[in-house]
Every structure is written in C-alpha cells, then in structure tokens.
Amino acid sequence: MKITFLGTGTSQGIPVIGSTHPVCLSADPRDIRLRVSVLIEWDGYNYVIDCGPDFRQQMLSTLSRKRTTAGDPAPLHGILLTHEHADHVAGLDDIRPFVFRQGDMPIYAHKRVLKTLAERFDYIFTTENRYPGAPSVASKEVVNGIPIKLGNIEVQPIEAYHGSLQVFGYRFQDIAYLTDVKTIADEEIEKLQDLDILVLNCLREEAHYTHLNVDEALALVAKIKPKRTYLTHISHHLGFHAEAEQKLPENVFLAYDGLTLTT
C-alpha cells in the first residue's frame, strides 16, 4: 500500500497570500504546502482523501501521470471526505475529467457532509435539469462503526472532533489518516492500534481551539503507539520544516507535499 501526500498545509496553504512571514518566503520546497489531502494506492486502486481547492493541481502532478497496465490514464476510484470545510471539498468540480472517462464519482462522507455538498454543489448532485458538462457523483454515506468496502479491502472510519464538529479519519489496513482533529474518544483510539503509519494533523506549537498543537499531537501519538507518525495540516507558524522536524521525537516526522510512503 502506498500513500502520497498531495498537500500538507492549512486552509490558506503556504505561502499565505501576501504574507512576509519567513516561512512563507522560504526557498525550501518542503515549506511550500498545498491544502491537505492524500492519495492512497494499492493493487491498482486509487482513492483520494479530501478534495480541496488545489485538487486539480494535485492530480496533474500525481495521478494524471500514471497509466494502467493497458496504457490508459489511471482512474480515480473514489474520494473519501473528512468533513465539509472548504479546504477539504472546494475542488469537487475538478473531478469532471475523471467522471467524463469513468462515470459517476463515488463520494464517501458523513450524511451531514453529503447534505451540505448537495446544497453547495447542487448542480453536481441534482438529478433534474442537469447541465450537460456538470460532473456527477454517487453518494456513499459513511457510518461510524461500519467498515467501507473499497476494492479488495475494508476501510475503517475513525470518528473524531474538530472543535465541536464531527469529522472522520480513515484506516486503510496498517495506515491511518486523521486530520483536523482536536479530540478523539478512547474507543476510537482502540481502532488505531498496531499501525505502521499514522498521519495526524499538527497545526503549530501554540494551542488552537479546533486543531491539535505539537504537544497534543505527540500525546496522542504516545497513546496510539504507531511505528511511524507523519504530521500534516501544518501552519507556517510551526516554523521551517528543517528546524521543526529536528525537535520531534524518534519516529515522528513532518510530512511534506509529494512525500510517498509504502507499507
């Protein structure tokens, strides 16, 4: 199984428009971060978690470069959404090239998120008077405690809270992806045992009301005890990648855009 980090930044990305913060002016490519998302690949299956405003750019740099064994463009088999905030869903219109080749795009999300998307992107979700060039989706409700059948594996939803907002993380065999988390119940932590790779949000050193900071993220890592942890959803306030990563304990790393890991 392979995971590629399509974006590791916050809702504004790095650099932030107009910012003169030193990290926003950094020449280190690891300090340039698109909105948070990952591509998960195994046995010819390709799934993306979250579809933010940088989705088109992310697909051009990764999946659109790949080909099937028959030489055809690699498909995108579906999109799993963590929650409905714009930095996680605003790129939904850019699924069109995949839809035109493959048909309806499966979208996996909490029923609340699907309802919100149907309102925000009504031209995509409607079945009446459809614009001929609009993309189309197949809505798949995610329910906590019920595994999702994707290809030849089952994916486990992991429930957490982004402040007071419910969000889903996802466990793909020995890889788990959790972003925009502030709190998580002990029974959900039990679902995260024996991981090879944990991906977890970590905004900055200073406390934040809806995101984990460094101390909180490391405390959660200590509870879960994965073999390796990669921190994502990183703000420029965390500091330069090279300097911030040196402060982390063994087997905890900062993710960066384009990083690919395999298990």
Short description:
By secondary structure, this protein is of the alpha/beta class. The chain has eight helices and 14 strands.
Report on this model:
The chain contains eight helices and 14 strands. It has 263 residues and is an alpha/beta fold. It has a single domain, classed as 4-Layer Sandwich (Metallo-beta-lactamase, Chain A). The chain has a seven-stranded mixed beta sheet with strand order 6-5-4-3-2-1-14. The mean pLDDT is 97.
Count the beta strands: 14
User: What is the CATH class?
Assistant: Alpha Beta
CATH homologous superfamily label: Ribonuclease Z/Hydroxyacylglutathione hydrolase-like
Distance between the termini: 5 Å
How helix-rich are the residues, as a percent range? 10-25%
* Order of adjacent strands in the largest pleated sheet: 6-5-4-3-2-1-14
Derived structural class: alpha/beta
Average pLDDT metric: 97
Shape: globular
Please summarize the sheet with the most strands. Answer: 7 strands, mixed
Strand content: 25-35%
Radius of gyration: 18 Å
Instruction: Give the second-level CATH assignment, the architecture.
Output: 4-Layer Sandwich
* Topology pattern, helix = H, strand = E: EEEHEHHEHHEEEEEHEHEHEE
How many distinct helices?
8
Chart the SSEs and their pairings.
Blueprint: E1 2-7, E2 37-42, E3 45-49, H1 55-61, E4 78-80, H2 86-89, H3 96-102, E5 105-109, H4 111-120, H5 122-125, E6 137-141, E7 148-150, E8 153-162, E9 165-172, E10 175-178, H6 186-189, E11 197-201, H7 214-224, E12 228-232, H8 241-246, E13 252-254, E14 260-262
Parallel strand pairs: 3-4, 4-5, 5-6, 10-11, 11-12, 12-13
Antiparallel strand pairs: 1-2, 1-14, 2-3, 7-8, 8-9, 9-10
